[in-house]
Write a structure and sequence with these properties.
globular; 549 residues; mainly beta
Length: 549
């Protein structure tokens, strides 16, 4: 169950100016057998006799690329008895650290920091920000060694993605029946990845998401002892604080949260016990049912004047009381359960229920509306106004969008209903944001302060939740082309391929089998599989591709 390390590191040569590898092939180094699982581990070199203060610091930073044996090689650069916690945090740097000796015993490293990861694996993207780390050295047995080193690692993005692996913690949405994922990063070399996941889950959601989700873990509860795994069952003991103000039902819900957070490790059941109370425990199997939201695998398109599934199976109940093609609809979101839909047609936001007359929610709207699983329509009445309106067909609520910059170009609520993705147009390109949706008994009452994601070049065309943890942003570039970027919420940015014919509309897929769907400028239904866009042969003259929730 434990992750084996495949650490990509280069040999350290303490002569002249030594750089830390950022990309390309691994340079020559000592090679050792891995963990018996077929892995190869590249080991940096320890201190060279007679190395200067700057060379010692440079070597120490480089040796952090070899985490084997609790970063034993990096610790060779430390003076006897020096405490250093390498996993307290990670600073992601751009370019090489600049080393300066401020005096005979002090070396300062200046970094261009573009991201950070805290002790619970939370990844935060930062604008280029200069940071300094100070190292104090002493002479020990005639050689320079580091007597004071800042906790944490300094890594390039290239190295970080090879030393750390993403996992998804699970929280509950407002309905307590839907999981909301939260991406965290843990070392691939971790001797106890399950324990690290449990600790992060007990510590709670990332700050921007916390107001929008529920966790069954008590704020003061901590793990006690090791996580014991027998086959596919994990046993976890938590401190007494967990049951001081919570019920046995919440203990089973906590067990279910932990099981879902460790599902990638093959864990099918978690049993949670309480320290100091013998025989008191709960299992994830007894918790109320909860799941990640799922939709029909078949795309829904408007073609030939009809809104229908593409593929075999039951037909879509599309008697929505309106001819969407004649109404010149440019977007539609459909709830799979019952066919409830919200559409934008000729500037009108329409609420469409099978067998009922259309309800006009607003007019003069330019930004495509969204729909959540609870049946609330979301739309921006004025792209220049930092507010969004929600309606269930009877009530209408205006919610402010705090700390948002730029003109809103598109919005989309995630399938779990706990988050909303927003793209705005700025002078320097397209800004992407994700924010938590705060609800009371299912009713949206506010939008939490948004988390800004990396900026994308070009003018925003569309945004879509590609998966539960990633947002796809489509932009048009100055040269007339398009750019498609996948932004993992709390993770990496990935450039995706664009098809030969321009995309006019983007829609999220169902996950692994189809990350994204789109309509091309020539009316094709396109599906992104294995990094390549493929045109569907089952339908032609597509007028729009629906978003499914």
């Amino acid at each position: 169950m434990r992750k084996a390390l495949v650490a990509c590191a280069a040999t350290l040569a303490l002569v002249g100016c030594v750089g830390l590898p950022d990309s390309g092939p691994v340079s020559a180094g000592e090679v050792q057998e891995g963990t018996g699982l077929g892995d190869v581990e590249f080991i940096a070199e320890g201190p060279t006799p007679g190395a200067s203060q700057e060379e010692i610091v440079q070597g120490f930073l480089q040796a952090a690329l070899s985490p084997a044996d609790d970063f034993s090689i990096a610790r060779d650069y430390l003076a006897d008895g020096v405490d250093w916690d390498p996993l307290a945090s990670v600073a992601l740097r751009s370019g090489q650290p600049e080393l300066t000796s401020t005096d005979a015993a002090t070396v300062e490293a200046t970094l261009d920091v573009v991201g950070s990861v805290d002790e619970h694996g939370t990844f935060t993207t930062l604008a280029d920000d200069s940071a300094r780390r100070t190292f104090v050295l002493i002479e020990e047995r005639g050689e320079w060694r580091i007597a004071d080193a800042p906790d944490g690692l300094v890594l390039s993005r290239y190295s970080f993605e090879r030393l750390f692996d993403a996992q998804s913690l699970a929280w509950f949405a407002d309905d307590r029946a839907t999981f909301v994922p939260d991406v965290r990063w843990f070392p691939r070399s971790s001797d106890d990845l399950p324990a690290a996941i449990v600790d992060a889950a007990l510590a709670g959601p990332v700050a921007w998401l916390a107001p929008a989700v529920f966790t069954a873990a008590d704020a003061d509860a901590v793990r006690v002892g090791d996580v014991v795994i027998d086959d596919e069952v994990a046993e976890v003991t938590v401190s007494f604080e967990q049951v001081q103000e919570s019920s046995s039902d919440e203990l089973s819900m906590l067990a279910l949260q932990l099981q879902q957070s460790m599902v990638r490790l093959g864990i099918t059941e978690v049993i949670v016990g309480v320290d100091g109370i013998d025989g008191y425990s709960a299992t994830s199997r007894d918790a109320p049912q909860a799941s990640m939201p799922a939709v029909d695998a078949r795309p829904i398109v408007l073609a030939g004047g009809e809104l229908a599934y593409v593929g075999q199976g039951a037909a879509l109940d599309a008697d929505l009381g309106i001819d969407l093609a004649a109404a010149e609809a440019t977007s539609v979101t459909v709830r799979d359960d019952d066919g409830l839909a919200v559409a934008l047609a000729s500037g009108q936001v329409l609420r469409l229920s099978p067998g009922a007359a259309p309800v006009v929610l607003d007019t003069g709207v330019t930004v495509a509306p969204s729909l959540d699983r609870a049946g609330w329509a979301w739309w921006v009445p004025d792209a220049a106004t930092q507010a969004i309106v929600v309606s269930d067909g009877q009530r209408e609520i205006v919610l402010g969008l705090p700390d948002l910059q730029g003109t809103i170009r598109d919005v989309e609520v995630s399938r779990d209903g706990a988050r909303i993705a927003i793209v705005t147009e700025l002078s320097g390109g397209t800004a992407a944001w994700v924010a938590g949706i705060v609800r009371e008994d299912g009713v949206p009452v506010s939008v939490a302060p948004p988390q800004r994601m990396p900026q994308v070049t070009g003018s925003a065309v569309d945004v879509a939740w590609a998966t539960g943890t990633a947002v796809a942003v489509l932009t048009s570039t100055q040269d007339g082309g398009q750019q498609l970027v996948l932004l993992t919420v709390g993770g990496a940015t990935q450039q995706l391929a664009t098809p030969q014919d321009a995309i006019t509309q983007l829609s999220g897929g169902i996950g692994a089998s189809a990350v994204l769907r789109a309509r091309s400028a020539v009316g094709e239904l396109l599906v992104l599989r294995a990094g390549q866009w493929q045109a569907s042969s089952d339908v032609a003259d597509v007028q729009l591709v629906a978003t499914q929730i």
